[in-house]
């Protein structure tokens, strides 16, 4: 289960306690919370709940236009292998719009 912008919800701590109790019965269920900062997560829940969630952090850097271009180019190559149906100029035009 994944929640993006979960920190904007009402009654976050109560909700997370319910999810935590649910997950105790289903240990193979994963839970992903997406937020802007670790400090924000810590401030929303009590210490006991925070430690029970056993958080692991993964930080994603913001993309610039060049990085988005590289990602789009890689995805096209992966999807179509050697048969690239998209002109390089089209991808470049996409990069200019970002």
Provide a compact summary of the structure.
With 98 residues, this protein is mainly α.
Topology:
Elements: E1 2-4, H1 12-25, E2 32-34, H2 38-44, H3 47-53, H4 65-80, H5 88-97
Parallel strand pairs: 1-2
Q: Could you characterize the architecture of this molecule?
A:
The chain has 98 residues and is mainly alpha-helical. The chain has 2 domains: 52 residues, no CATH class; 33 residues. The protein contains 5 helices and 2 strands. It is elongated.
Q: Could you name the ranges where pLDDT drops below 50 across 5 or more consecutive residues? A: none
Roughly how many Å is the radius of gyration?
20 Å
Proportion of residues in helical segments: 55-70%
How do the strands line up in the largest sheet?
1-2
Profile the largest sheet.
2 strands, parallel
Number of helices: 5
Kindly report how far apart the N and C termini lie.
30 Å
How much strand content do the residues show? 5-15%
Morphology call: elongated
Counting structural domains, the number is: 2
The average pLDDT value, as a whole number, equals 75
What is the element string, with H for helices and E for strands?
EHEHHHH
